[in-house]
Amino acid sequence: MKKNSIYVEIPIHAEMEDLWEASQNPGLHEQWDLRFSSISYQPKEREDDPQEFTYRTNIGLGLSVEGWGRSKGTHDGKDGSRTSSLHFGTDQKISIITEGKGYWKYIPKADKDMTFLTQYDYQTRFGTLGAWVDRLFFRPMIGWATALSFDVLKRWLEKGMTPKSQYLQFFAYWILSFFFSFIWIYHGLIPKVLYKHPEEIALAESLLPLSVSANSVVFWMGIAEILFGLSWWVIKRRRRLYYLQVFAFPILTASAIMADPSTLTHPFSPLTYNSSLFLLSVLGLAVSRDVPTAKNCKRQKKESA
């Protein structure tokens, strides 16, 4: 089965030594690289020996993958570039990777501008099944994790944003996006489209003229909510969705209370429920500014003419 090696490239405005230290010092490297939870260098007998290290990657549910690595040395190019070659692998059967090879390259440009890139490939376990799992799931995931990590490193060196704060922002942003998508789809699909809950019908009847069918209005409101929920996965600029919710939730709350003031005494009052969603929308606005993204990296190597 033909497979493409993983390639990631990003421009970084930083000094060569700062970029080198952040990527070669294991204590710094493990902070920004999403692929590793910890990296430990092994002592060398001689200065020019390859640098051996061990790594651990936590994969959830108390499980982790531990492996070995060997940095084969660095090479200084005539243009001032540096290259660090790598050989890595693991004997743990839980890992789809057996071993692989790759390199990092540091290319200086004008005025402290750098190009930082990596290219690597690996062999897989579990025969044909492992090859298909790698091609369809694992390889895209590990490539994405590499690119996201490179963008986190870039922001750390250029803006001083710590990797920990960036990952907290990143995961908060996506958890909130998933949450709001689920909320809108659920409340459009279940009580409005599928079951047409009596309280939904009664609320619509209290706000609509007698000549208008409340059933139809509730149904199409449900469709609109479902589409809005799906838009969280289509629209790239989600800040606009957060702004819309910040304005919409107070209006929805006021409308529900005016239609039926007794809802204020319900166990799940629209006042408290929508207020919670309003505050989460404000939080979403706060964390959605300048979120780290793998899209800032180049993922295809430029072919030589």
From TrEMBL:
Record carries keyword Cell division: no
Spans through the membrane: 167-186, 217-235, 242-259, 271-291
The keyword Secreted appears for this protein: no
InterPro entries named in the record: DoxX-like (IPR025695)
Pfam entry (one): DoxX_3
Swiss-Prot/TrEMBL keywords: Membrane, Transmembrane, Transmembrane helix
Name by which UniProt lists this protein: DoxX-like family protein
Record organism: Pontibacillus chungwhensis BH030062
